[in-house]
Write a structure and sequence with these properties.
Blueprint: H1 11-14, E1 21-32, E2 35-46, E3 50-54, H2 61-68, E4 76-81, E5 84-85, H3 91-97, E6 101-104, H4 116-127, H5 132-145, H6 161-173, E7 179-183, H7 191-208, E8 211-215, H8 219-225, E9 228-233, E10 236-242, H9 243-247, H10 252-260, H11 281-286
Parallel strand pairs: 3-8, 3-9, 6-7, 7-8
Antiparallel strand pairs: 1-2, 1-4, 4-5, 9-10
Helix pairs in contact: 4-5, 4-6, 6-7
């Protein structure tokens, strides 16, 4: 089986901030007991783009992404974020480093006993010295930007699944992260709610100029939102590239995984597009949700 081989880089090159790539992974291995989950992962995450990581259940998508923030430490290999090898950070450096990231959890992970406002204000109260007025302004701005104006006093139990996802994103945005990670953002949502979450991801990427990493196996959603797609299988990256490159892959397993979903012809903003009608990057950008 063929797999993705990125450019070979020296240690000196990896420790330099790259204008195109926000995260670079090289030779990453991770084992839990007898379970060898990551078997030499090589991957580049493109800055300012929506990077989607696909793969079957249990393929190691979440395990891989947890290494980006050093929630897990690899057995060997390395992860470089803006030129910093995350495995070399001490506890004090790590606390500051993790503020680069915002996390949108699969089921929003909101505090049920706190209002929408207090859920969103929580990171600011814990990790900043903002005044009460500044916190109110920041939270109000993020909620309004995501169409949640007027929900401040509501509790999570009063919100729909899609609204809870947006509150989770608003909370992730209050600390102005450079990288947003979405863990299976459309799980458990109906088709219309899924489309709304997809629009939210694209709009957020454009409005806040963040690098987005989305873990998903919802292929209709993947082809709608992705700028770049990477597939993990049996502990390695089989394919990684722009939407059209992955859509026309010569890798048999990747092609079968995608085509089985029934959306092999879809591309970002091009659901149901013909395989021969490839929109370029500029066209996709123009078709984003404004």
């Amino acid at each position: 089986m063929t797999y993705y081989v990125p450019p070979t880089l020296s240690e000196a090159e990896l420790t330099q901030r790259d204008e195109r790539w926000a995260i670079r992974v090289r030779g990453l291995h991770k084992t839990f007991g007898d379970n060898h989950v990551l078997r030499g992962v090589n991957l580049d995450i493109e800055r300012g783009q929506v990077n989607v990581i696909i793969g079957a259940s249990g393929a190691g998508k979440s395990v891989l992404v947890k290494h980006f923030m050093l929630l897990l430490r690899g057995d060997s290999g390395g992860v470089w974020v803006d030129g910093t090898n995350v495995f070399t950070l001490d506890p004090k450096e790590l606390a500051s480093f993790r503020r680069k990231f915002g996390m949108v959890f699969q089921f929003a992970a909101l505090f049920d006993s706190l209002s929408v406002f207090d859920n969103c204000a929580f990171p600011l109260r814990e990790h900043s010295k903002k005044s009460k007025k500044e916190i109110e302004e920041i939270v109000g701005d993020r909620l309004a930007a995501l169409g949640l104006h007027g929900t401040q006093l509501k509790f999570p139990g009063e919100l729909s699944g899609g609204m809870r996802k947006r509150v989770g994103l608003a909370r992730a945005l209050v600390l102005q992260p450079e990288i947003l990670i979405y863990d299976e953002p459309t799980t458990g949502l109906d088709p219309l709610a899924t489309e709304n979450v997809d629009d939210m991801i694209m709009t957020t990427a454009d409005r806040y100029h963040v690098t987005s990493v989305v873990i998903s196996h919802d292929m209709a959603s993947v082809f709608r939102i992705a700028d770049r797609i990477s597939m993990i299988h049996e502990g390695v990256i089989l394919e990684s590239g722009k939407v059209d490159e992955v859509r026309h892959t010569s890798n048999e397993y990747v092609h079968r995984f995608i085509s089985t979903s029934g959306v092999i012809g879809a591309g970002r903003g091009m659901a149901g597009a013909d395989d021969g009608d490839d929109a370029d990057e500029t066209t996709r950008r123009e078709m984003r949700i404004s």
